[in-house]
Amino acid sequence: QTLRALFQYKPQNIDELMINAGDLIYVNPAQQSDASEGWVIGTSHRTKSEKEPNVKLNGEAHNLSMSRSATNALSLQNAALRRAVLVMRHGERVDQVFGRSWLQQCLTADGKYYRADLNFPSSLPRQKDGMKQFECDPPLSCCGIFQSRLIGEALLDQEVTVSYVYSSPALRCVQTAQHVLQGLKLNPKVRIRVEPGLFEWTKWEASRAIPNFMTTAELLEASYNIDTSYRAHFPLSSLVPTESYEDYVSRSSAVIKQITSACPSKAPLPPFFAFPGVPGVILIVAHSSSLASLTRPLAGLPSRDSRDFAQMVRKIPSLGMCFCEEQKEENKWQMVNPPVKTLTHGANTAFDWRNTILGD
Amino acid sequence: QTLRALFQYKPQNIDELMINAGDLIYVNPAQQSDASEGWVIGTSHRTKSEKEPNVKLNGEAHNLSMSRSATNALSLQNAALRRAVLVMRHGERVDQVFGRSWLQQCLTADGKYYRADLNFPSSLPRQKDGMKQFECDPPLSCCGIFQSRLIGEALLDQEVTVSYVYSSPALRCVQTAQHVLQGLKLNPKVRIRVEPGLFEWTKWEASRAIPNFMTTAELLEASYNIDTSYRAHFPLSSLVPTESYEDYVSRSSAVIKQITSACPSKAPLPPFFAFPGVPGVILIVAHSSSLASLTRPLAGLPSRDSRDFAQMVRKIPSLGMCFCEEQKEENKWQMVNPPVKTLTHGANTAFDWRNTILGD
């Protein structure tokens, strides 16, 4: 049986093997009686030639002659129960760049939308209550779309298997989820589960009223790939404006527990392997506060003090990520490095050629 | 004869007509004896219904019944000689985000390139003198590629016809030109003319030596769409390190004059129309300083004081643009608004989940 590694694994003992994502590992079922509990013995097909220490094997490399491959005794931590949760913040939102009055900047005298700067999206989706609603539920900027797509492509490069996608009902989160799935080439295979319980702390984002989010029908009409069979744990009607910090913390803690228990944890094969039946990553696209409020209860950490919380949340960039892996013991989770790197880029400022170039 | 408008034209007299890019205009050659010099008389097929004041016609709309169309006497400034030059700065370069030591951040212990942050390009092209050369000639970041592509798509939206593309020999400029052409869907139809005379003021960018730019053969091998028949006005060997401001100003002034005289100015058809034979836009992709040093001599303006110059250049963002249009009088150029809007976006900061989320 030949398996393909899903994640990198760094050896922690001399009888363990360095595994890169994409490595092909031969596992002989007859040999497994020698393996200690939770481990398997296998052989890596990866060449060990000094010249190509980082070579990654794919389907074709499988046909390399065995003389170029090295054979290594291999122990793999058997996490047949291992799951992972990737929590990410949405991409750049238009009001982050153009301020609260962004929509006014984009309306013609007769109320039509136009693109006042090339970072505004080329069009807005239809909303039953009119464009005005987008002031409380702003879309991604073009830069936000670029960021989301890039992260999706990077996850694909790392051969991360995403099996479930949950999103806050905020338009920017649904859009981010959609563009990440496009980058992953999983659109429309994996559908987005819109979970109102993932919305931002309402004290920050809904001080007077919960925004009129786009309905499932509207999202579908705008070509968003929504899972219509999904039943939310927290219906929209359960969200209240200006909730207390304690209420937000307990809502977040409840929703992450409900999400993880709704995604199957039993699987028949060893860890690291992208095979049907192996639980893939549960992707959750939500808000900057979600990176702490969803992962800390999962990892068994206490919630942050409400004052520290605001300060911490300000440091989280677009597409900032936290990654939790389930441990050998079921429902024990640990925060580890996300499967892809950070995304760091500069700002691009407004430019007035008349003042700058023509002026004397 | 039905013509399609290439640019918007705002009427300046009551016998002139508002024209949007894409409008179809019927011009009867028999009527032109009534037109004053430099103008033509024509009829707009655009509907004037109050409900759709901004409707833009395309090929299909051509078939609208005449009852929905309005007929207007039309005067068009006849700029049969009119050309336009669009000077743009390259996109975000990797060292702008990651500093001068960017390449060291991306090398494994055995000297292989890897992507230390997702804004680094996924690979570097081959260079005969090795990767080290890219330290003096850095590539675009992924964000820079996004910016370039977006501007190309916006030019296409505005139906701007680009007929000639010139680029500085700096890799970031050639890459920007290529991605703008891809956005314009003109790749590989329009080929890039690499002109060393367009390189940055060497006092800033080449204080000790002129960088080892990629050769034409290397650029072609890396799939850049280079015009191999182009003979540079300023060969690479003519560039000297640490040139004086006066030398830079006179080089820039000479190169823009040579470029405009090398691109045909005579054309048989009226202005605004994207027809074969009508001169399209001459696109020049170069450096922030080029926005002033190329356009000011073209528009007959004196060069800036060298101290003001440095201050002005710092204000120019990625893909900052200046646009010069030739006037009725040949070789008289005026700076006007570029055909597309500015691009303004925010920065994305580095993020350390361990310190931010896990720390207490």
Automatic annotation (TrEMBL), chains A, B:
SUPFAM superfamilies: Phosphoglycerate mutase-like, SH3-domain. One of its GO terms (cellular component) is cytoplasm. Pfam families: His_Phos_1. The gene is Ubash3a. Transmembrane segments: none annotated. InterPro entries: His_Pase_superF_clade-1, His_PPase_superfam, Phosphatase_SH3-domain, SH3-like_dom_sf. One of its GO terms (biological process) is negative regulation of T cell receptor signaling pathway. This is UBS3A protein.
